Amino acid sequence: MDEAGSCASGGGFRPGVDSLDEPPNSRIFLVISKYTPESVLRERFSPFGEIQDIWVVRDKHTKESKGIAFVKFARSSQACRAMEEMHGQCLSPSDTKPIKVFIAQSRSSGSHRDVEDEELTRIFVMIPKSYTEEDLREKFKVYGDIEYCSIIKNKVTGESKGLGYVRYLKPSQAAQAIENCDRSFRAILAEPKNKASESSEQDYYSNMRQETLGHEPRVNMFPFEQQSEFSSFDKNDNRGQEAISKRLSVVSRVPFTEEQLFSIFDIVPGLEYCEVQRDPYSNYGHGVVQYFNVASAIYAKYKLHGFQYPPGNRIGVSFIDDGSNATDLLRKMATQMVAAQLASMVWNNPSQQQFLQFGGSSGSQLPQIQTDVVLPSCKKKAPPETPVKERLFIVFNPHPLPLDVLEDIFCRFGNLIEVYLVSGKNVGYAKYADRISANDAITTLHGKILNGVRLKVMLADSPREESNKRQRTY
């Protein structure tokens, strides 16, 4: 979303670019009527807390509202409560369409997040090892309704590791717990389970606990001292014993920002996200980096471990053990490398599609669909002249899928009329002749990874609304 074209007529405090996401998740993203003034937004959203600023996104040339706005609150819990209570509501009696409210995307999150997003409701805490789950629930229930509590235990001894999770029913409750609980709990939002994040969070807090108690870390955080940049390729090293995963731990003697961390690791294609983790007990910089595929993670680890940033300061990069089978990961890595190469060929040179479609005697198309998603069997497309009942908007990360693969995926839900890509953008559209088929596609594909590409699939403007839009003349 281009926020450069936004404007707000109100004065008062306006946070700078670097503080837009301070505190995290304190900004909401609104889809509203083009005729909704800023005064109405301020009136309807001020009951939820202190508003620091309002941006109404406008066309750079006509200055007309684009029907999109951002509201920045002083606290995360205020923004979350505004999302919970205002999503799907009408701002005024004259409005015919309800508004949509999401937590706005930040540099650490790749997309806007809604009320049902697990990332906003589960917190990760440091607790005394004597705590039971009942103790944990008793301590945190004051902030809202708890869905479950769990304590991380040693798999062998069953002893608590002094770490736990609390899952609330609402994002605002989790935000209030983080804002108001005792600082000794060091509460943060936990990452979704499907990101295999527990090991990184445990590793981070375990290291923090060791430094707090004055113990030596289990491993040397700077094993690359007095070594060359490529010493990790030594044939006599113990690489074979090292865990391999898509997640990397980054340590530096000099603190770094999330933007700096991103700029370093985005050199390697396939970066999914990065996160800086603050350690109040040391001046070291700590971060977690995750790639979409293991091939990118392996390359980044051996390319950037020992890299000097800033000059004179070497950063340490190591795999975070997420319990994955190394053999399976390496096998997938080889497959993903081939699939990514083929996808890159198609995207950079569409004429190569003919080459890729020269299959063997079976006539199969390449690249094949590789995913953990259970897809329906292929179905015939609807005739091109069929009326469009539903349009889907598709976002690709890190790059679009080839058009033939995309069509193969979306036709499996039946009644597909057309699927196409927007030239030069990581987005596309799918047109369906049946709403049920379109909804099935959203339910099955949204947030899933196919051929190493993560998809976001959501409803686009209806055909009627699209036909009423002014056509561009340039």
Which strands sit side by side, in order, in the main sheet?
1-3-4-2-5
The number of strands is 18
The helix fraction, in percent, is 25-40%
| Strand content bin | 15-25%
Question: Helix/strand/pairing class, anyone?
Answer: alpha+beta
Oligomer: single chain
Indicate the low-confidence ranges by residue numbers: 1-13, 195-200, 208-241, 352-367, 465-474
CATH topology of the domain at 27-110: Alpha-Beta Plaits
Largest sheet: 5 strands, antiparallel
Give the radius of gyration: 24 Å
User: What's the rounded overall pLDDT mean?
Assistant: 76
The CATH architecture of the domain at 27-110 comes to: 2-Layer Sandwich
CATH level 4 superfamily of the domain at 27-110: RRM (RNA recognition motif) domain
Strand and helix order: EEHEEHEEHEEHEHEHEEHEHHEHEEHEEH
Q: What's the CATH class label of the domain at 27-110?
A: Alpha Beta
Termini separation: 21 Å
The geometry reads as globular
